[in-house]
Structure formats: structure tokens, C-alpha cells
Amino acid sequence: MLRLLFFLALAVVALTLWTQWRAARNEARAEAEYPPIGRILTVNGVDVHAYVTGEGPDLVLIHGSSGNLRDFTFHLADRLATDYRVIALDRPGLGYSQPLSPDGTPLRAQADILVEAARQLGAEHPIVLGQSLGGAVALAWAVYHPDRLSALVTVSGVSHPWDTGLGTYYSVLSSRLGRWLVIPLLTAFVTDARIGQQIDSVFAPADAPDGYADHIGPRLTLRRAAMRANALQRRHLLGWVEELVPHYPEIAVPTEILHAEADRTVSHDIHSVPLADTIPGAVLTTLPGSSHMPHHTDPDAVIAAIDRAAGRAGLR
Q: The pTM is what?
């Protein structure tokens, strides 16, 4: 019996070491294939990855969950760069920006660090656009730094409490056991086919644009530190959003809200409809279909909303 237990323990140790080795190898490959495409700023002692292009009024782009700023550099940033100085930022813990806390970086802290990053780049009063979870960060920017932006745009943005729970996936990944056991297994062994399925599910029922997966470097998100940061942000997001909601009537900058009517990931009716009713003067554009990624599937509508926000702010 003791001999059996010894060999079982030895097998567990061997599997753990092999998993960690594969995870580290996959992370090194991802970083070699997808290095930073912008500059690394030091903001309050923390690295923040920023990509800057174009000329014109400053426009900050904040990506959503499980992503990085490459989501905006696939096509949108280049189109916007003809009329705006575009600043795409990796949120704390994702892409090449460092996390601010081992227990999950609150929306306010994310906004604080991104406001300062924008300021370092000379953007004192940018238009701020956030997509999905990035929409909640953009709202935190407007709530807690009202004098540090000129207009606000949310795209499929998270803004209000929901009652569907966290879900099994993020419940497991954000647990202590999940962070230190399950996440390394995913980093080490998730296949390219499974990654493709996950990307397809975000765009469904539309198709992901050709070349999108090759551009964004999805294995950057599968790095252990990034997965832990993302899982903890998702775990605490509901509470953070509940703290924001009472402050929405205080938002005084021109606000444009875009959301697909049948978005399967972030509900149009739960989030953007009450948001438009709460922010004074906010304009809601309801898009047909169910795309959670209209900055890819309907970029003209997103650009038009940015242009309207800029016009309302006196920037165009």
C-alpha cells in the first residue's frame, strides 16, 4: 500500500512539473510570436502597454474581458487614425500591462491607472471608449475622473447588475484551487481548435473576421498570470458594478451607447437600456442582430458614434 501511494505521489509530482513546463513553454512562444506592439509606460510603478497612432482629438480605447489592445488594432485603430489620435491600452493584468492587485483589480483602480497612462501620453481630456467589460472601466473613468475626459462611448458595455451568476467556468478559475491547478492545465494543454471555438462563440452568430485569431494572439490571454487576473476581475465584477450605478446620473460628458439588441454575452436590455435612461443626455443606438463585437461586425456604426461624441464635445 505504501509503495502504491509512493508511486501515485511520484506520478502527481511528475504531472505537475510537466504541466508547469508546458505552460511556461507555451507562454514563451506566445510572447515571442506576439511581443508588445506599442510602448511600455511606467505608471505609479506599474507597467502599462499603450499603442498610439494617428492625429487629431485624443481617443482612448479600452478592451473587454479575456482580451488585449490587439482587439482594436486588427482594423479599427487604423480607420480611426485618419481623424483621431488613437490610444489603445491593455487593462491591468492583461496583455502586457501588469496587475495592480493579486486579488483582482477593481474598476476604479483600473480607471485610475489608465487615466494616468493617458495623461503621460498627453491625453488630458480624451474621448473614452470601452467595449464589454472595458465599458465598465470607461464608466468608472467618467464617474471617478469626470474632469479627465471629453466624451464617453460604450460598446456592448457592462453597466448594471445581473442575476445569472458567475457561471461554472469563472467560479472554478477564480477559486484558489482553480487559480493554481486548473489554470496551469489550461495554459499547458488547451488546443488551437478549442481556442477557435471560443472565439467563434464570442462572435456568434456572425463569423470572426478572417485573420482575427492570428492577429490578436489568443495564447497571450492563456498565460497563467493573465488568466488569474481575468478570472478574479470577472469574479468581483458584479460588486464593482453595483458600486458604480448610483453615480451614473453624475456623468455630464456627451455619452454615446451602442449595443446589439440580441447580444448573447452582455444583455442590451439589462445594461444599455437603463444606462441610457440614467446618464443625462445619453444617446442609445440599438444595433440589429446579436453581435457582441460590433467594432468588428459593424465598425461603421461604432465610428459614427465616436464622431457624434466628438461633435457633441466640440472636438469636430
A: 0.95
